[in-house]
Design goal:
185 residues; 11 strands; alpha/beta; single chain
Amino acid sequence: MRHVPVLIPRLLAIATVAGLLLSTSCRERAVPGGSGHYWNGSAAGPEVVRAEKVDAAAAQRLASAHWTRQACSLDMVDQGPPDAEISREDVHRLDGFLLGQDGLAAGGFHVVLKGADQFRAPARTGKARPDVAAYFRRPELAAAGFEIGLSLAAVPPGAYEVVFLIDHPQGDYFCESGKRIRVVE
C-alpha cells in the first residue's frame, strides 16, 4: 500500500496521454509544416485535374445518391487547414481519405463543390494513409487516401461545400466532408 501514492500520479499521467492520443482522429490530422500558400503543381505532386461545371443530369445523380454511412475527410488544402479561402487562379492540392459504401477504400470518385452551382473533378483513392488504417484498426484501409491537384479556373468565386461522389454500378453514393472552401478571384 505504500506504493499507492506514487502509482496514482503515474496512472493519471498515462491516462492523460492516452486520452490525448485517442481524442485526435484522422479527420483532424496535424498539418505537416504547411505554408498556407497554393501548391505549385510540381512533378512530385498529383496529376492536375480541372473542376468542371456539373450538368443537370449529373446534378440529379448527386441529388439521388445514397449516403455511404462510412468515414471520409478533406484533411488539407495546400498542406494547410481544409476550411480555406483559395484563389481560382491557382492549382490547389487537396488531401484526404474516403471509404466507399462497403467500408473499403473508395477507388474512383469525384470531388464535388456544391454552391450556387456545382462543380466536380475526378479523383482516386490509393495514397498511403497508415494513420487511417491505425485509427480504424483495419490494415486494408492503408490505401484509402487521396491527393488531387485541382484547377479551379472554371469555378466562380463563392462558398462551396466539399462532397465526395462515388460512381457505383448499383447506384451512386456520397460522403459529406463537413468542410467548406471559399473560392476568391
